[in-house]
Amino acid sequence: MAFARSSFLLLILWLGFIHSAHAADVMRLATTTSTENSGLMEKLIPVFEEKFDVSAHTIVGGTGRALNHARNGDVDAIFVHSTKAELELVNAGFGVDRREVMYNEFIIVGPDEDPAGIHGSSELSDSFQRIAESESIFISRGDDSGTHNKELILWEMAGVHERGDWYKSVGAGMGKALQIADELRGYILTDKGTWLYLMNHLNLPIHVDGAKDGRNVYGVIAVNPERHPQVNYKAAKKLVEWLTSDEAKSIISNYRVNGEQLFYVMNWQIHSSVLIPISVFCQPQTIIPQSCGNSLWKV
Q: Which fold would CATH assign to domain 2-104+216-281?
C-alpha cells in the first residue's frame, strides 16, 4: 500500500513537472485590432504554437498600446503597423530583430451618397481635404493605433489643422469604429483587410481604393532582452523568423475573405548579414508593386 501511495505521488509530481515545463514556454504577443479583426491571427497563431510548442498569449489593441507594452517589457513581441513608431522603438533600444512581414492598404469607406464627392480619388490626403471642406461626418479611431497615426499624417498632408463637430473621435478599435461610422453614416479610414472581413455586416462602400499614399505595412519586433531580461526572447525570435518563413507567407498569401486576398507578404534577402525588405526597392506609392513581383533582391 505504501509503495502504491509513493508511486501515485511520484506520478502526480511528474505530471506537475511536465505541465510546468510546458506552461513555462509562454510567449506574450501584443498585436493590432486589424490583424485580429481581419481573422488572420486565427490562422497564424495555432500553426506557430503547434510547430514550436509555444503557448502564445495575444493582447489585442492599437499599435500605440502595443508599443507601450514593449517599452515596459510587458510582452515578448509585437506585431503592428506604424513604421515610423516601430523604428523609433528599435532605435531607442526597446526592440530588436524587426522585420516587415506583410502589407495591405488603407482605404476610405463611407455612405453611399458620398457627400464629400471623394469617390474614385487617387489620393487619401486629397480626399481628407474634401471631407473637411464639405464638413462631412468623419469617424476617427482616436486610439493611438497605426490607423489613427496614419490618419493624423493625412490631415497634415491635406493642410487640415482644425476639425469641427463633423469630426468624431471614438477611441475604439477598427471593428467597433467601422460599426460607429455605419451608424452615423460617416467616412472612416480603415485597413482594407478588416473592411473585407466585416463588409457583409456594414453598409459602407469603398470610395477611395488603391491610393498612392495608402500602403499599410505590418512589422514584427522582439522586445530587447538586454533592456528587459525577463522576456521570453527565445520564443519571440522564433515568431519573428517564422512570420517571414515560407510557411507563414503561404498562410498569409492564401488567406482570403469573400474571395479577396487581404494581405500581401514582404520578401527578404539576407546579404552581408543584413536583411533587406523588398519594399525598399518598390516605389512608395505602389500598393501592390507589380514591378517588384515576388522576386528577392540583393544589395
A: D-Maltodextrin-Binding Protein; domain 2 (3.40.190)
